[in-house]
């Protein structure tokens, strides 16, 4: 019975058009709303910074410049003569005089003042820095005085010897102290004539000897 009722209802709906076909809306979708207008008071984002192009390759460095040579100095013009009408000097310049040759002889010894006790003549002998007595042989008269003058930084003395070739001191003979410039030693030969050899103790081995010959 229910089936009969459903069939009757279906037929009645078909006759009245209740089962019309459904309608479909094919209209295109509405476009999105436009963006809001920009506000001039609001800060705007900065525009994008374009990327800089790559720098070109640098050219090779230039070699250092060479200094320019200086121009030659012009010669100095000759100076005018005064007075202008004076003739030119044609004499060649004189060569400088050569220095005097060095003397190997010792400097002169100043004479000592004559002592009142000295009756005879005074003679001088130099004991130099080269190991020599100058003069090494001296002839005098009885009563004369001999003064030995020491020159230089070498040590000397005056010692009477036994003979003219040795270095042995004569007992009781004359003898001075050892010293250097400006030391002096004097001896008066008044005991009689004879030969009086002597030597320098520090330099006797080098031949520093002398002789005093006393005559009446």
Summarize the entry for a quick read.
By secondary structure, the protein is mainly beta.
Count of β-strands: 8
Order of helices and strands: HEEEEEEEE
Q: Given the C-alpha coordinates, what overall shape results?
A: rod-shaped
Mean pLDDT: 74
CA distance, first residue to last residue: 212 Å
Beta-strand portion reads 15-25%
Tell me about the biggest sheet? 4 strands, mixed
Helix content: under 10%
Which strands sit side by side, in order, in the main sheet?
A: 2-1-4-6
- Poorly predicted runs: 18-22, 106-114
Global structural class = mainly beta
The oligomerization state is: single chain
- Number of helical regions: 1
Task: Compute the CA-based radius of gyration.
Answer: 70 Å
General description of the model:
The chain has one helix and eight strands. With 216 residues, the chain is mainly beta. Strands 2-1-4-6 form a four-stranded mixed β-sheet, with no helix packed on it. A hairpin with a 5-residue loop joins strand 1 (122-127) and strand 2. The longest helix is centred in the N-terminal third of the chain and has 15 residues, at 2-16.
Blueprint (SSEs and pairs):
Layout: H1 2-16, E1 122-127, E2 133-134, E3 137-141, E4 144-150, E5 159-160, E6 184-189, E7 194-199, E8 209-215
